[in-house]
């Protein structure tokens, strides 16, 4: 979900603001001036260390191709910052505020230069204003056909407009990140909740693992007990079988011992009977 440019304009209108912020444009112009002055000073120091005859603060006609492209790059970067500040401060109509930085930047330099010429001492003022990257006289604008002039003007236009658009789009990215559940405090809370759920699941898994291990150990103990009882039952049955077999043997031996006297008695009775036979026969 992203905030559109139309929604930003409607928000500013609901807040009682118009579609254009002169304060934002003025802030962008001052940022562009300051950024170019600083960058030009750094580039001049580097160029001076490399070559003594390089002057980046001169007019477009005196600048060569290489120096002109360097100045154009500095202008592009400086007015990109300026347009970005204006578009981000205004929070709406980034392209219009970038164009405002371009126009107001040129008008301020031209107006100050005109005032300086009308009051005398124009050379020093014009030289100082020239260090802001914008021509101060009509003759200097007449040199716009050079490589340095064309590159500088293109950099001035592109940097201001592109900076304004990028500055406004920052709010769209801010809104998108604000409503993104994976970013910010909501995301941190979600991550903490997810970590808590993960820890709880791990604890539950460990607890279930311990319970399962206990159940397995209990099952193994029960199996061992059943096996031991089975062994005891088998041993008991074996002993009972041996006892029964021993009892049968004892019973068999006892029966034989009782049978022998009876047999002997019967044999004696038969012998006596034979001797007492009326026929006089003896056994």
User: What is the molecular shape?
Assistant: rod-shaped
Q: End-to-end distance, in Å?
A: 136 Å
From the structure provided, what is the oligomeric state, counting identical versus distinct chains? single chain
Which spans have pLDDT < 50 for at least 5 consecutive residues? Answer: none
How many structural domains are formed by the residues? 2
**Mean pLDDT across all amino acids:** 77
Radius of gyration: 57 Å
How much strand content do the residues show?
A: under 5%
Fraction of residues in helix: over 70%
Number of strands: 0
H/I helix tally? 8
> What's the SSE pattern?
HHHHHHHH
Q: SS-based structural class? A: mainly alpha
Largest sheet report: none
Provide tags for this entry.
283 residues; mainly alpha; 81% helix; 0% strand
